[in-house]
Each structure stands twice: as structure tokens, then as C-alpha cells.
Amino acid sequence: MPRAVILTALPVEYLAVRNHLIELQENIHPQKTIYEEGKFVVDEQAWEVRIAEIGSGNTGAAVETVRAIADFQPDTLLFVGIAGGIKDVKIGDVVAATDVYGYESGKVGKGFFPRPKVGKSAYGLVQRAKSEARKQEWLQRLSSNPKPKPRVFVAPIAAGEKVIASKQSDIFQFLRASYNDAIAVEMEGFGFLSAAFAYPNIQAIVIRGISDLIDGKNDDALEPEEVRQEKASHHASAFAFQVLSKFQVTDSPSTTNSSPANVQPLQNELDINNLPIRKPREYVLDLLNRLSLSQLNEVIFRYGVELAHLPNGTPSQRSIELIRYALQKEGADLSQLLTVIYTVAPHMKEQ
Fold first, then answer.
1. 113 and 35 within one domain
2. pTM here?
3. Do 223 and 270 lie in a common domain?
4. Which pLDDT tens digit goes with each residue over 295-324?
């Protein structure tokens, strides 16, 4: 049975997702994250789905994404929730993100110089989202018949740590100048997709409902904020489950037995008998996340990474960016990075 993890930030988003599942049971992670697991059944196909409400922010989203992947080993990851509209969209519309720009990445000197970083949704899920957006069958998953009918956009969005409440704000003007194809803004999608990047066999996408427009963020004249958030959450959830219902999983990590033959060979100087049966980048990310901060910094130094290539974020974010850099430098097996990790923390080679 294929598996999916759906993460949300807010209670209203979580409840909208939960409505689509049956046979729900609570599951508590050893590090105390509380999930619910249920089934999503469509056309005689059943998905095992784990859901969680993780709070706001890209950093928390990255941490919880890695945790959910390690514990549940899903085939598909979705982040579902609400967003603010920048352009083109109306309240209640849905955006399936092709890209999520981390707009706060850059260098501060006499001014702010952006160094754009982007998380990309999986190609297969983006294609499926485009197809379902054209058909409009997803509207049948709504409990009501909204008028006017909400539209679905498959387009870039932006993510940062700030709530943007005015088109006159410096950040809004910066987004329009530097990321002018982004049509919505939120606070978790970049961290979520950055974490998912280290797991190429897992398909991930961000799906958002528009709950407010930037200039009208605090304007309850037409509808109260809680009504708009609930509407946007239900629309995003309905479209997300429509995408999931039509998405075909191949080479499922949750249903395929791992074996040594599935792991790409490392260079001869490494003792491959000590390498757990996992994809190299998953194994390396796990090791990096277990290092102390001083050990991680030593690995970065010994590996010869220029600091400009890594964000000034949490150790988890730096680990993800280090793997991204290493993949470009040496390819998929990451053997050079693994050698450096074993040099800095030799006890890990014995585990």
C-alpha cells in the first residue's frame, strides 16, 4: 500500500486534511511529534496517510519533514495549507507550487543582495496538478458548491519567516522586483522542499489555498479571517487529495524491500560492509544530523565548502545544503563527504 505524509502548519489546515481520511489512529514519535494515521481510499486504491500539525516557519518544516520521512518512509510528501496572494489570484483559489523561493537568502552589506535559493516540487506531481487543474473534478470533493468557482494555478510561490500585510512594505516590493513570477507567499514551503530534496525517490509538492490578499490581510469587511482561512484550507485539501487519488507510485520505497544491490557502490577506501542498507544521501543526512555543531562545522571545513554556499540557518538546514553542494561536486554516491564524516567522527563508522 502506498504511503503519503501530509504536513500542515495551522489547526484549520490540519482539520481540513483530516476530513478526507478514515480509520484514524494516533501515533506518537519518540521525539514527541504527534501524528494521526489513516486511510484514503479511492477507486479501490488505498493510501496510508500520516498527518501532522507542525507550526509555522521554514526551519521547523525542514526538521519535521526529515523526521516524518525517517519514521514513516513515505512515497509522497505534501505540504497543504493557506497562503497570501501576491498577484493574479483571488481568495479561495488554489496554488500548486512548481517552485518555492526562499526569499530571505542573501548577503547583507550596505544593502541586501539576494542569493536566490529555490525548492522544486516533483515533476510528476506538478504534471498531475496541471492535469487535475484543467479537469476541475476536484471541486466534487468539496462539501459545498462555492461561487464563483475557485481556480487552480500551478506556479511559483515564495516563502520566508515574515507575515507580509501591505503592498507598501519593503519586503513586498522586494518580492515583486526579485521574484516577480511568484503569485503567493507563505512560511514553510521552502524548508519542506529543501528537506525533501535529499530523498530523490520521494515525490513532494506544496499546495496552498489563498486565504487573503496582501492589501486586504486585516480587512474583515467581506468575510472574517477565520472564514477565509477555513475556505482556503478546504479548497487546498480537496485539490491535494484529488492529485493524490490520480498519482501513480512506481518503485515504492514503502513496498519495495531494500537490499545491498539497491545501494550505489562507494569507493574502495570505504568499508561498505558497515554502510546501512539505505540510499547514500539518506544515510549521509542521518549522520550529519547526529553530529554536534562543532563536528558539523569541522566537516564543512574539511570538505572545503565556501561559506557562501551554505545558509546561516539551523544545523539541519546546513546539512541539507551541504548535501546539495556535495551532489554537484562529486555525484550521487557522496563517498568523499562520507569519508570526511568518518574522519571527524570515526565512531559512526562502527555503528
1. yes
2. 0.72
3. no
4. 888 888 788 876 556 666 677 878 888 888
CA separation, residue 136 to residues 133, 204, 256, 270 (Å): 6, 22, 33, 53
Provide the 3-class DSSP secondary structure of residue 80.
Answer: strand
CA angle 28, 31, 37 (to 5 degrees): 25
Alpha carbon distance 302, 22 (integer Å)? 50
Same domain, 39 and 183: yes
Q: Please name the amino acid found at residue 108.
A: V
Residue 252 lies in a domain: no
151 Ramachandran zone, left/alpha/beta (phi>0; psi -120 to 50): beta
CB-based contact 139:238 (threshold 8 Å): yes
Q: Give the Cα separation of 339 and 179 in Å (integer).
A: 38
Same domain, 107 and 191: yes
186 within 8 A of 82, measured Cβ to Cβ = yes
Closest CA to 240 of 2, 1, 29, 8: 8
